[in-house]
Specification:
The complex is a heterodimer of chains A (114) and B (111).
Chain A lengths: L4 E3 L2 E4 L5 E6 L6 E7 L5 E8 L2 E4 L8 E4 L6 E5 L8 E8 L8 E2 L3 E5 L1
Parallel strand pairs in A: 2-11
Antiparallel strand pairs in A: 1-3, 3-8, 4-5, 4-9, 5-6, 7-8, 9-10, 9-11
Chain B lengths: L3 E4 L2 E5 L4 E7 L5 E7 L5 E7 L2 E5 L2 E6 L4 E6 L8 E8 L9 E2 L3 E6 L1
Parallel strand pairs in B: 2-11
Antiparallel strand pairs in B: 1-3, 3-8, 4-5, 4-9, 6-7, 7-8, 9-10, 9-11
The chains are: A mainly beta (114), B mainly beta (111).
Chain lengths: 114, 111
């Protein structure tokens, strides 16, 4: 039973380019969460999605960032016109239910903006 | 001030030592999680607890709700325990998207 799969593991983009981060949740999980981890800081919630719906995007910047979780395929976190401050590790987690069910994390995508 | 504070920030121990990592929080919670982030970056959930104590192998997690404090203990530490340990709390009636994370404790166990 594969865990949460994120790709790519490492992504290098020049300022102004677009970054696309992918997350395939664990089998049977329909809830996906994206977090950002800056160096020496804790994980910060960005967005929570269920299939075809954004449930909570309160942690995601209004500009340049978007997320989707289509009916088929992985969840995508998209960052347009990247800037150096977007350099961070982005983690995806999934759960079968909301509320009390534990999260299962992926290995993260490390984005470096040059 | 962060809602979840961990101490120490960094910890170096010799193999075999007993390790304690602390987590204090300032908000009401329904559950507290301990996570382990490996040097390669992956995050694994170790414990979810809302009261008392849980044990899994050499790992023990305790929580004191009145004092808003939790500890993670590692007995007979081993170099493979080297990782960042993260404390996270979920507010009452909160969901996974409401979780608050500590900055983590970086543990290095030397052989």
């Amino acid at each position: 039973n594969a865990g949460v799969m994120q790709n790519p593991r490492h992504l290098v983009r020049r300022r102004g380019q677009e970054a696309r981060l992918r997350c395939s949740p664990m089998k049977g999980h329909s809830h996906v969460y994206w977090y950002r981890q800056l160096p020496e800081e804790g994980l910060k919630f960005m967005v929570y999605l269920q299939k075809e719906n954004i449930i909570d995007e309160s942690g995601m910047p209004k500009e340049r960032f978007s997320a989707e979780f289509p009916k088929e395929g992985p969840s995508i976190l998209r960052i347009q016109q990247v800037v150096r401050g977007d350099s961070a590790a982005y983690f995806c987690a999934s759960s079968p239910l909301q509320g009390g069910s534990p999260l299962h994390f992926g290995n993260g995508t490390r984005l470096t903006v040059t | 001030k962060n809602e979840v504070e961990q101490s120490p920030q960094n910890l170096t121990a010799q193999e075999g030592e007993f390790i304690t990592i602390n987590c204090s929080y300032s908000v009401g919670i329904s559950a507290l999680h301990w996570l382990q982030q490996h040097p390669g970056g992956g995050i694994v959930s170790l414990f979810m607890l809302s009261s008392g104590k849980k044990k899994h192998g050499r790992l023990i997690a305790t929580i004191n709700i009145q004092e808003k404090h939790s500890s993670l203990h590692i007995t007979a530490s081993h170099p493979r325990d080297s990782a960042v340990y993260i404390c996270a709390v979920k507010p009452p009636r909160g969901n996974n998207n409401d979780m608050r994370f500590g900055a983590g404790t970086r543990l290095t166990v030397k052989p």
